[in-house]
Write a structure and sequence with these properties.
alpha/beta, Rossmann fold, 4 strands
Length: 198
Amino acid sequence: MAIVGYTRVSTLDQNLHSQIDALSSAGAVKTFSDKLTGKNANRPGLTACLEFLRDDAGDVLLVYSTDRLGRSMSDVVSIVGQLQRRGIQFRSLTEPFNTTTAGGELFFHICAAFAQMNGRIISERTQAGLAAARARGRHGGRPTVVTPERLAAALQMRVSTPPTPWATIGSTLGVGASTIRRAVENASSGAAGADGRS
């Protein structure tokens, strides 16, 4: 059995040492760290930590607090669920999360149930909002960026001699170059198809 620590700080100017010292004092034999925001899904320290932990060997992932592990309770629940499937336990130093005890595991499952319920409530509200919008004649998704006026201006710039580059057209019209190019090509192929049918 090994206790393995994981730490994270939100900005590069914060110091990891206080977290590392606390984890070492609690028995962590090795600690992995990230100096990134919680929103960044690519955390090399966490990836290395999860790879280091051994399946069904009684290993424990130890964190200073759950917000160091994930940006939301559902993130934490997902990671801890993966650990439990591998036979790895989880413990937080500053919160009552400790899957090595019956009470701690019960508390974790209660939090997991609340996180799942919260996710369902958000999903139901989103679906209800979309249904209400559709009933009023509105549809989801982002509004169209390429208006007929912008498309006409882009077509004029493209037929000039020499043709205006896509990047210039995009910056002039306030639209991404690939977006305006796709719109022009779609309009051109639609016009060609219509001509072929007549």
